[in-house]
Specification:
heterodimer, A: 246 residues, mainly alpha, MetI-like fold, 2 domains, 10 helices, globular, B: 274 residues, alpha/beta, Rossmann fold
């Protein structure tokens, strides 16, 4: 509780500092709007720019990408674990893919999926996939040998060994990868919405920036941060539900 | 007829230094309700015997029999294993850990939790059922592991140095607990250990192994009266048994140390030449 209050106090203090620096003329008010103006713009962008509908659209895209990441990322990580040959052949490629600026190939996705939410979701998915695969693999490989031996001593079959021992043992590491994947997916989803001027918060930020409505732009960015906070809270809740260990 | 029997066990490992014969012509039998310890110096192949008998290690010579029938590869439902390393599942509570084999066996939830609670109480952990392993001491976690194995109702309890990571006092107290459970359940038990006091305190018979390759050097029948407790370590008879086993073991342990030193010298000389 103290940490939470301290965190909020730090954000308030930074905003007050920025406000002071802008009012003192040390930061150009035409580049960075006053934090008080940003807060004041929120009711306006809610009513006039329908930011909540845009927020909902971006949330839907992130949920779709997160579902794809969970299903395909964890499955591919498990497949690499089961097949050492596939792992040796592909692990460095996946590592290289993680470092690649996927967003730059958005024209290719546009050609394949058209100017649609599918393009945005698929780019988010493609950008977030490598950390989920790599961290799933890392978690499975790091499972202590003795836990697997316990499973063998109780005559678990391959499916039980995976579901009852490997997966729960690897879960904390898998969640680290899943959160990383979500960060990459969210950045790319908002980025592509901005680039192709389609859909949710990214498109709204694009429109507001082009109108030079800086308080509104930053207000919309606050909703992007809110999306991120909500997804992190959701993954933490899910992890606590799936694994009681503190 | 012995419940558990090993006949002519032998195991070779291939390493960079060539073929290492870990165990050779190792045979023993364990009668129902008997507590047998296998003791030997480090590197004598005790854990290899544990893994072969438990079914975790294949490709060996000789045979393992349970109730007179040869085991053909893999683990056997009559053999329950307790490991040297900490082996509780950190994501499960004490009760859920102990109920694990019953869950695998498909027992209904209420019934398995009830049965698991009985084994939790048996190892003296009542009141800790809802705790996670990270909230317990090393000795308590090892008791959880023992309770979990006992919950699977094995005919033979096979333990590989389960107290190795614990301090001397906890070892003695845990030894008392294991002995009490073994006598209460009349549980056939095989304990792999390198601890002389532990072997004498707990066992009906002690099998002494030679240093590599591990062979059976001597069988010592422990004639100490039952029921036993940790207090027995102060008796003269206890000291005599420890001294007798140490007499055999000392020679093997010295051979092991000399072998390790010569191997390290050889590796050092090779590195220098390179």
């Amino acid at each position: 509780m103290v940490a939470r209050i301290t965190g909020i106090a730090v954000v308030v203090a930074v905003c007050a500092l920025v406000e002071g620096l802008i009012r003192a003329g040390l930061i150009n008010a035409y580049v960075v709007p006053l934090p008080s103006q940003i807060l004041a713009s929120i009711p306006r962008i809610v009513v006039e720019e329908h930011v909540l509908a845009r927020f909902g659209q971006t949330m839907q895209e992130v949920v779709a990408a997160a579902a794809l990441l969970a299903v395909f990322g964890i499955s591919l990580g498990a497949l690499f674990y089961k097949s050492p040959l596939l792992r040796r052949a592909c692990e460095s490629w996946v590592g290289a893919w993680a470092a690649a600026p996927i967003v730059l190939v958005y024209p290719l996705f546009l050609v394949i999926f058209g100017r649609s939410a599918t393009t945005i979701v698929m780019i988010g998915f493609a950008a977030g996939l490598p950390p989920v695969i790599l961290k799933t693999l890392e978690g499975l490989v790091a499972t202590r040998r003795v836990l697997l031996d316990v499973g063998r001593s109780f005559r678990l079959d391959g499916r039980q060994q995976f579901a009852k021992i490997l997966l729960p043992a690897a879960l904390p590491t898998i969640f680290v990868g899943f959160r990383l994947g979500l960060i990459f997916a969210m950045i790319n989803i908002v980025g592509v919405e901005f680039l192709i001027n389609f859909g949710g918060l990214g498109q709204l930020i694009n429109e507001l920036a082009e109108r030079y409505d800086l308080p509104g732009t930053y207000g919309a960015i606050l909703f992007v941060v809110l999306t991120s906070v909500l997804f992190f809270a959701a993954t933490e809740w899910l992890e606590r539900r799936l694994r009681p260990m503190r | 007829m012995p419940v558990l029997e090993a006949r002519g066990l032998a195991k070779r490992f291939h390493s960079n230094e060539g073929v290492v014969v870990a165990v050779e012509d190792f045979s023993f039998g364990v009668a129902a309700g008997e507590f047998v310890s296998i003791i030997g110096p480090s590197g004598c192949g005790k854990s290899t015997v544990f893994n072969i008998v438990g079914g975790l290690l294949g490709d060996y010579d000789g045979e393992v029999l349970v109730d007179g029938a040869v085991i053909h590869g893999g683990t056997h439902p009559s053999i329950g294993m307790v490991f040297q390393e900490e082996s509780t599942f950190p994501w499960r509570t004490v009760l859920e850990n102990v109920a694990f084999p019953l869950e695998i066996a498909g027992m209904a939830k209420a019934e398995r939790l009830d049965r698991a609670a009985h084994f939790v109480a048996l190892v003296g952990l009542q009141g800790f059922e809802r705790r996670l392993p990270e909230e317990l001491s090393g000795g308590m976690r090892q008791r959880v592991a023992i309770a979990r194995t006992l919950a699977s109702n094995p005919k033979i309890l096979l333990m590989d140095e389960p107290f190795a990571a614990l301090d001397a006092q906890t070892r003695l107290l845990l030894g008392d607990k294991v002995l009490q459970i073994q006598q209460e359940l009349k549980q056939t038990t095989v304990l792999i250990t390198h601890n002389l006091d532990e072997a004498v305190q707990l066992s009906d018979r002690v099998l002494v192994m030679t240093y590599r390759p591990g062979r059976l050097k001597r069988v010592v029948d422990i004639g100490l009266p039952h029921p036993r407790s940790g207090d027995i370590v102060g008796s003269r008879e206890f000291g005599d048994y420890v001294a007798a086993i140490w007499h055999d073991l000392r020679e093997e342990a010295s051979r092991g140390i000399a072998d390790d030193e010569s191997r390290l010298r050889g590796a050092g000389a090779t590195a220098k030449r390179a």
